[in-house]
TrEMBL record:
Residues 72-149 form the Barstar (barnase inhibitor) domain. This is Barnase inhibitor. The lineage of its organism: Bacteria, Pseudomonadati, Planctomycetota, Planctomycetia, Gemmatales. Belongs to the barstar family. It comes from the Bacteria. InterPro entries: Barstar (IPR000468), Barstar-like_sf (IPR035905). SUPFAM superfamilies: Barstar-related.
Length: 200
């Protein structure tokens, strides 16, 4: 994606496909276009990662934006019951949490999202969980996607960052958006006129 950086005026200008105006908080500054969270959400709220180091870098970037990034080792989940148990405990779901996908959808839609950042659920070794017999791994990701859309109605961000050691892992679309492998790098604020580094 080539982005042209235009400065020197207070009126809104076109920057690639984004508008920027320093006097208008609803316009997007060109340096912010390439933030990790915006790059994820351009494709959908759930993204697949392979190399662990890239995911760690992106989590660090999100934390610098004010995100909470609770991480889960999904390889330790032998069943959906294990998933519900750990997610409920780590995200502090209420005691009446029903430990099923409908209840997960309800509670994820109600979790506290920091106004200054967001929440990114980091799911390590999700491929191991997805291979467990009887596990509805796609449904879990679909619940995250649906809850993300609910939060976005109120200007809040919920992401699902899914790490896999299996490069052949694929999922059908969730929340009517594709689950895509990440092939781009977190981008630091660019100098005027610089092109983004999108090498994966």
């Amino acid at each position: 994606m080539q982005v042209s950086f235009l400065f020197g005026t207070q009126r809104a200008k076109r920057v690639g496909s984004f508008r920027t105006d320093p006097a208008n908080p609803h316009c997007v500054h060109p340096d912010d276009v390439l933030r990790v969270d915006r790059q994820v959400l351009l494709n959908g709220p759930v993204a697949l990662y392979g190399p662990a180091e890239r995911l760690r870098r992106h989590v660090a970037a999100l934390e610098s934006y004010g995100y909470r990034c609770p991480a889960f080792d999904c390889g330790e989940w032998a069943s959906e019951a294990d998933m519900h148990r750990e997610v409920a405990a780590r995200l502090e779901f209420p005691g009446y949490y029903g430990r099923n996908l409908n209840a997960l959808n309800d509670c994820l839609g109600d979790i506290d999202i920091p106004e200054a950042g967001g929440v990114a659920l980091v799911l390590w070794r999700f491929d191991q969980f997805a291979r467990r017999p009887g596990v509805r791994a796609w449904d879990v990701l679909d619940v995250i996607a649906n809850a993300s859309w609910v939060h976005r109605l109120y200007g809040r961000r919920l992401l699902g960052l899914v790490q896999s050691d299996d490069p052949e892992l694929h999922f059908a679309s969730v929340g009517a958006r594709p689950v895509m492998w990440v092939s781009w790098e977190a981008h630091k604020p660019a100098e005027p006129g610089a092109a983004p580094d999108t090498a994966g």
